[in-house]
Amino acid sequence: MTPKVQLSLKTYNLLEEIPLTEFQKLVANDSSFKTYIGQSHMLWISELSEETTDVKQAVRSKLTHFINAKEFEEYRIRQVLITLRDKTAGFIEALYKSYDLYADGYFFMETVGVQHGLTFSNTYFDYYEWKKLPESDKKASISKIYPSVKIEAERVLIWLDNGTIKLTGIKDREGLYTFHDSRSDFDRLQSFGDFKVNSKKPRWSSLFSKAKQQLKQMPILRK
To answer: Which residues contact 93 (CB under 8 A, 6 or more apart)?
Structure first.
């Protein structure tokens, strides 16, 4: 992990999860940051005292020059996908985060984020509800969804590895992250492969199936 990504991760955690005092300790205890961001920035961070959203945003603004948003966003997405692929500690938290990533604008996360992440969060409204379940129920729930979650996580990781999906680290006017998408129409439609269309309009199911069949017969087109 590069110093820029480390600093980005600490700053992101400050805004989303950890208190200001913990952020100050993390930065102070990492000697590489003194060289990386300079003594004056280290001193400014250490002197902050007010725990408010404005102060946290000020930290982010102050450190923006040192942050590589593109690298950090890729790190953030890969961490979620690798956790889902390998079923390591934090699997359920990563499942919840997969939908957050989709909602942030990363629409290539649609299957793992919407079909699995959102569906799971609808079943267990919050993480604390999940934590109260008996261990046997937790294992059964994870075993049921893991095979398909793993396949989709691997597929998105391949897109990131081969450059089919390229992140920018930039948000559009609506506040959604942008990315370059070179997937074929077939690859995009495959993301909906496991969806069951339950619509009040009977024609939707047949039209959806017909569209998938037509795309299977088309050559893969790269943009």
So the answer is: 83, 127
Q: What is the pLDDT of residues 208-223, one digit of tens each?
A: 454 445 444 444 433 3
- Where do we find the tokens 């450190």? 63
CA distances from 159 to 81, 97, 154 (A): 12, 19, 9
> What pTM does this model have?
0.68
The answer to whether 117 touches 99, Cβ cutoff 8 Å, is yes
164: nearest Cα among 188, 186, 182, 146: 182
**Which residues does 160 contact at the CB level (< 8 Å), separation at least 6?**
74, 77, 78, 81, 167
**What are 45-65's pLDDT values in tens digits?**
888 877 676 777 788 777 777
